[in-house]
Amino acid sequence: MSPTHMNPTHMNPTHMNPTHMNHTQTNPTEPPTVVIVPGLRDHVPHHWQTLLAERLDAVRLLPPLRTGRLNRDAQVAALERTLAQISGPVVLVAHSAGVVTVVHWAQQHHHTVRGALLATPPDFAAPLGEGHPSPDDLSENGWTPVPMKPLPFPSIVAASTDDPLAAYDRVAEMAGAWGSRLVSLGPVGHLNPASGYGEWPRAEQFVRELS
């Protein structure tokens, strides 16, 4: 499926945490560094995150983990190490389990985050199906329960109406708990190469909006 076949964007009202403005007011003219946070499969060729990174000037990609890829603490620590090397503001661009990494990170660490694009988060409370970690594996590795508290920075949750890894209503519930603006992308699967993405031009639009 190509991006031209996406349904029109539907945006729900923003539920902003009052701390958002204070957290992002530091030198608002300084351009942010975009930090790419992949899912558990790390960076995949032809994935929209990989293609987005190739087009941006100020961008960091989380280095792939050699061990402990399924461990939440290892993933959160990798994100924190990357952010610690950046002195200015950032925009986080997370996909799939990378979204859950960002949400866990935000409960433990602080950085000047202008905003976060959180694309197609999975529902780790439900079985994900063949080829994916089981609920027991996710629990044992610290992923669940997923925090359901407001994030301390603005965020956009980009949700699919036919994501095999999460029901739309469940993603809407998570977005509400995180204080995120929910954007329906229509039927885009899990927004990955297996679903026909590939290029996803709207990612750049969302990044500009959050910057």
Automatic annotation (TrEMBL):
Residues 1-28 have a biased composition (Polar residues). One of its GO terms (molecular function) is hydrolase activity. Residues 1-30 are annotated as: Disordered. Keywords: Hydrolase. It comes from the Bacteria. This is Alpha/beta hydrolase.
